[in-house]
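Record now logged for everyone:
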Amino acid sequence: MPLPETGRMSDPSWWRQAAVYQIYPRSFADANGDGIGDLRGITSRVPYLRDLGIEAVWLSPFYPSALADGGYDVDDYRDVDPRLGTLEDFDEMVAALHAARIKVIVDIVPNHTGSGHRFFREALASPKGSPARERYIFRDGRGENGEQPPTDWISYFGGSAWEPVGDGQWYLHLFATEQPDLNWEHPEVREEFLTTLRFWSDRGVDGFRVDVAQLLAKDIPLDAADMPDKATADAIDRTTGRHPFEERPEVHEIYAAWREVFDSYDPPRTAVAEAWVTTPAQRARFASPEGLGQAFNFDLLEADFDAAQFRRIIERNLAIAAETGSSTTWVLSNHDVVRHATRYSLPPRGDSTQKAGAQWLLDGGDIEEVPVELGLARAHAATLFMLALPGSAYVYQGEELGLQEVGDIPAVQRQDPSFFRNPGVDVGRDGCRVPLPWSAEGPSFGFGDADPHLPQPEWFDEMTVEAESSDATSTLTLYRAALALRQFLRTEESLEWVDTGRDDVLHIRRPNGWAAIMNTGRRPYEMPDAPVLLASRVLSDPARIPADTTVWLQEG
């Protein structure tokens, strides 16, 4: 089906219902044969991205980094990691993507820098109380000589959130030791990022994804005696804005200044917040027109394959979008979670606070122990239903191939800091970051001419782009058809719920007369008398929608 000429490259509201493809650059395509994906590799695959039917790419960090956290420890926000290319390579990539009518979104990591950033190197070389240290959060330790951390706070990656520097002071790092938290009360920090936003916008970037957007504003007393301990901090209601670093309302002042930069361009640059917050109302503040404009909704990513959960999540988030004037976002997989084709193979998460798939990973991550075909069928159904929803849809690289989580990576080959900081508790996120399989050729399934930086399993040979491109029943064929049809059917940002008489079947109708039905139950569901536009699997009985299946219909 030919794509409609929508003129969306110049449409300032393109982001409201775009299909965005997340690229983890180090694992997408390797052009120079060093085992690490790079910008030239992305450029070489622009025809693939065009044919897939996505409208924008989001690039995870490609900046100079020591890779303490997969590139989220940024040492220079206005350059390219030499292992991934040059600024000239970046410009060529943007030009190629724009020529293919694909927008470009880049990751911004404002809560912390890498430990190699010039600000932090200067801070370590400067004495206590120096202006250089004020750009970060340095505090005196407890004890006679400051030999104990200021508090017992725990990093999100495990271990203490404080690191000593040898003179009685400690710096705060809510993530890895190599990711010191910035002090956003400091005017030089604020100006540094405004300059960075302009730098990439001037190079043609269309938007920004803001990492852990809720954490920037902090209230960390100068005296350790005035800081709450972990138990006290954990008990604080985060919606009150009184937590030392979570969901403080001052953060929105920062983004109001960013919005002024975004709106100074024509068309305005867009932004989407990664904001892990406690309530939908809190998330809505990040999505306001005066702020970042849009915020990630991770609710489906954390849900089971369950119609009742899906409906509650969809209704809640569409209501929030209507209240804020934003559009919602839908995502089923990304670079931080077990791929949904595998999650849907595993027992339901239910009310567990453990991350989906975590126990399977801790038990060894053996793909032979999960019903792969069941998970894949459910992933197809969930994806097709998600793509039928109003709002923007985010697709993570490799999900269009139906890739499973690589759960059995040997310990000596793992890279994620959460694996090393939480032994026996957290296996980490490497399994969803394994380089893509493009073909059956070479040492890395066409990823490049060298062994990949993370090991690829043998079963990748059945899920390469080359193999799936010629298979009419493959996941790739389904994604291509769905994304093309989604553009063709695009309509107003609303839907109508149609009663199905069953809690395990969802039926939505869009304003221009097309509809989607998802059956998450065990029994077939009677097919309405309407032409089928697309189905998530081959329908052996055209009068019934089988279990774990979604269909799109033309009802109007």
Notes: The first strand starts at residue 19 and ends at 23. Residues 307-324 form the longest helix (18 residues). The chain is about 25% helix and 10% strand.
